[in-house]
Structure formats: C-alpha cells, structure tokens
Design a protein that fits this description.
This protein has about 525 residues and is of the alpha+beta class. The strands form three sheets. Strands 5, 6, 7, 8, 9, 10, 11 and 13 form an eight-stranded mixed β-sheet that branches. The chain is elongated. It starts with 8 loop residues before the first helix and ends in a 26-residue tail after the last strand.
Length: about 525
C-alpha cells in the first residue's frame, strides 16, 4: 500500500494563506462591484468664464435617481411609520404614499444625489478650488422626469507651467549689525518701560514723540484739520487712510513753533474714489517735543520682560532679534525674486472679487509671518497699515507667491502633517509666552489653522528653492531696510476716521499712546 502524504505544518500554513487571500480578493472584488454600482452616471462640462474662474455643469442620469425613489417608497410602503388617512400602518397603497410623501422624499434624494455627485466630481476632476462654489442647493430641484442638472461657478487656482526653479540665481542681502544699531534696537525694546518726559533741548529726532496741529490740503485747498495729534517720530507715519513715507526725515530737527509740510499718499481703499492713491499735503505745526527716558536696566526688569538676567545676555538677545529680522528680509527677497522668475513665464490676472474675498486671510498670514520673524505688536501694526493702503495689490502679490510655492510643493510632493502644525503652534506658544492649548484655541476661533498649514507648506517649498539656489550677496544698506512705522487713528480725509479693523473686527489701539 502506498504511503499517504501527510501535510506538514508549513503546507497547512500555505493552504490557509491561499484561502485567506482568495477570500480577501473575493471581498475586494465584491466591494469594487458595489462601488461601481453606487457610482452615479453623470456628465460634466467645464468652461472658463474668466480669470481663475470656471463654470461647471453636471448632468446626473435619471437611472440612479429613479432607483433611489423606488428604494425609498418601497421602504415607506412596508414601514408602519407613514400615516395615510383611512388606512392602517403598512396597508396604504403605494400610489397614495408616493403622492403624499413625494416632496419630502424628493428633498431627501436631492441631498443624497448632490452629495454623491459632488464627491464624485471631486474625485474624477482635477479642479483646484480656491473657495467653495457659488452654489445654493435650495434653488435646484429633482425633476419628475429626465436627468438632474445643476451648475455653478467656482474660483480655481491659475494654471501655469513652472520654469526651472532649482539652481536659480538669487541676490541675497547680508548685513553685520554695528554696536550703534544694537544699541538703537535696545532703546526701542526698552521704550515701553520708560517714562515720557519733556525733551531738553526740544529738538525732534527719531523715537521722540511730538504733539502737533495738522492741516490737510489737496491742490492748495484745505480739506481737513486735526488738533493735538500726538505721534512718535518713526521713519514712516501711517494714518488710517494714508502713508507719509518720509515722516522721520521731514521731522528731524523740528522744534516747537516750527512748521513742516509732509506728503501723504492716500489709500486705494479710501471712501473718496477720486482721491484714491492721490498725494495730499499735511502741514504739521509743532507744539511740543517729548522723549522717552529709558528705564533702569535692573535684573528684575530683564527677567520679567525679556527672560534674561544680565545686560550681556540682553545684548545677545537683541542681536538674535536683529539676525532673525535679517533672515525675514532675506526670505522676503527670495520670495519676490522667485515670483518674478515664475511670473515672467506666465501672464497672471486675478479677478477683483477673488482678491477682496482672499484679502483677510492673506493679511492674517502676512502678520503671522511677521510675528514668526520676531516683530512685536507695534511693528506688525505699522506694517499692517502699509499693506492695507493698497490691499488688492498686496493681496494679488501674496496670492501669486502662494500659487507658485504651492505648485512647487505639489511637484516635489511636499506635505504637511498634523504633527507639523502642532510643532508650529508649540513654537508660537513658546515665543508668545502662552500655553499650547490657548494658542491653538485662538487660531481655531479665528479660522487660522489652515493659514498655519499653508504657511508651513510654503516655507518648506521656499526652503527647497533656497537650498538649491546660487547666491550673489550684497550689503543691505540702512536706506534699504524697512524702517519702523508710527500709527495714529486719525484720518487725512474727513469722515473716515475709523481705524482699520484688526483681525476679528476689533480696532487696534494707537501704537503711540
């Protein structure tokens, strides 16, 4: 008698593995079949209707709709829930149930079909939306016969080809901060803890505070008067509706009784349309000059306000702040040059309505970027005012940077994970002296988590470009460095004295008070 072969343990394992694989394969095939059945039969037409805007028309085949109606009415007919007068639950004729419940069932099926159709649209099409579509589902209905058709307009990212971005040549500003520059930054950081006192002799210089009466004129005609305006002498002055770019230079050496005439460039957003972007003349009659007496540099002040305990450590801290600001300047310069390289290869036109909708988020991201560079609230507020003077142009520039760096991130498969966002929030919390939970809650409340993720993605993309670039270094002159900006709540034009709203809608306080 021939010996029977007894399967070994290994053979049993192989049989089991094969069986499991066959079962899993069958389940996968079944699921694929279910998914294919569940998929709607729909046609999609997409047309360009303007810069960064597409019109989408979706036609859903009637078959899927009728199938859902049939399933729902079958369910209702067999259920004891529907109440039809004269019939016990579950005994009413289907035709009567269909007539009585058609509207509510149609609304439910419309929601189901719309949801499935939009999800399928997102999976099948390569549209890169900037914002939710301009679509009101309450204004479309499921027809009793024929296909279900809905259409909408949607803002999308511009389509362009990336030219070579690795190995590009960039000009990089460099600077070694002198002792005088470090001392000037120390003075600025210590000012909030000092005492404002009359200056002797009363000759205005940078960082002093002047009080003046101001007359605003346009083409030699007086249009506004401001009394007792108190403002810090910084290189630039930002009113709520205009910028004096050479304020510090014009005010240098002024004494009480002196008259100084300064040009103010009005905002592109001012309410008086014919004056947008125009220059008006502000005549400052100086009434008073004060200066800030620096505080005594005690260990208590250093520890409580700056987290250091010695004057030497404070100097190192100030040097680090200046270096971080230089890095911010270098990165801004690199972004602008990268954008210029890309823009040369593509004609960009962004619609005005898109810019207005994106302005708030773009401004919030700019402020976040400034805060990351180590700027304090007063510095950020001043620069914010400048950005707000021509908000559409600045938003357009920022969006173009965003699109370019997002495209680089896509090509390089750069992604941001949840832990990246948490690490960034942790860094912001450490920098601001707040808890992680408090910072995260604030960012969520202000709808800025997405902005944090976008900023991180762009930083990674820019880091990649910078790491692969070649550099031509040049000395960053003092005249090329962006000076500080004094802000006042008054406006150059009458009737527009409301301050620019801060993020979240609350007005910012005057940085000179």
């Amino acid at each position: 008698m021939a010996d029977e072969t007894t399967p070994t343990e290994g053979t049993k394992d192989e049989v089991t593995a094969t069986a499991v694989a066959e079962i899993e394969g069958a389940e996968a095939d079944a699921q694929a079949s279910v998914d294919a059945e569940a998929k709607l039969v729909q046609t999609v037409e997409i047309k360009d209707v303007g810069p960064c805007k597409k019109h989408v028309k979706v036609t859903v085949d009637r078959g899927a709709i009728d199938k859902r109606f049939n399933e729902k009415f079958t369910e209702l007919t067999r259920s004891d829930q529907p109440q039809v007068r004269g019939f016990r639950p579950g005994k009413a004729p289907r035709k009567m149930i269909e007539k009585q419940y058609y509207e509510s069932v149609a609304e439910e099926i419309k929601s189901q079909v719309l949801m499935a159709s939009l999800e399928q649209l997102a999976e099948d099409q390569t549209i890169a939306p900037l914002s939710p579509p301009e679509f009101d589902p309450t204004k479309v209905d499921i027809p009793k016969e024929g296909p279900f058709i809905y259409e909408f307009d949607i803002e999308v990212r511009p389509e362009f080809e990336l030219p070579a971005y690795k190995g590009i040549k960039l000009r990089r500003p460099i600077h070694v901060y002198s002792t005088d520059e470090v001392e000037a930054e120390k003075k600025r950081l210590l000012e909030p803890y000092g005492q404002v006192v009359p200056k002797e002799p009363a000759v205005a210089a940078l960082f002093d505070t002047i009080t003046a009466d101001v007359t605003i004129s346009f083409k030699d005609k007086e249009i506004n008067k401001l009394s007792e305006v108190q403002v810090k002498v910084e290189p630039q002055l930002a009113l709520s509706d205009g910028i004096a770019a050479d304020f510090g230079e014009k005010m240098a050496g002024a004494t009480p009784g002196d008259v100084r005439v300064i040009d103010i460039t009005l905002s592109q957003e001012t309410t008086v349309e014919q004056l947008r972007g125009q220059k008006v003349q502000a005549t400052f009659t100086i009434k008073d000059v004060k200066t800030t007496r620096p505080p005594e540099l005690t260990q208590e002040l250093l520890e409580e306000s700056f987290g250091v305990s010695t004057s030497e450590a404070f100097t190192e801290l100030v040097q680090a702040v200046l270096e971080r600001r230089l890095e911010y300047t270098q990165r801004r310069s690199a972004r602008e040059q990268v954008l210029a390289t890309i823009a040369a290869a593509a004609a960009w036109e962004l619609p005005q309505d898109m810019l207005r909708k994106q302005a708030r988020k773009t401004l919030a991201r700019k402020m976040m970027e400034m805060r990351n560079s180590g700027m304090d609230d007063d510095q950020i507020q001043g620069r914010r005012r400048i950005l707000e003077q021509d908000v559409l142009k600045n938003t357009a520039d920022a969006l173009k940077e965003h699109f370019v760096l997002q495209k680089v991130a896509e090509v390089e498969k750069i992604e941001i994970e949840e832990e990246d966002i948490d690490a960034e929030i942790d860094r912001i919390a450490e920098q601001s002296g707040e808890s992680f939970r408090k910072v995260k809650a604030r960012l969520e409340k202000e709808d800025l988590i997405e902005a944090v993720a976008a900023d991180l993605l762009e930083r990674k993309a820019l880091d990649l470009i910078i790491a692969n670039a070649t550099y031509e270094d040049y000395e960053l002159k003092a005249s090329e460095q962006q000076g500080e900006v004094a802000t006042v709540e008054q406006a150059a034009l009458p009737g527009s004295s409301e301050p620019a709203p801060a993020e979240g809608g609350e007005p910012k306080t005057d940085s000179t008070s």
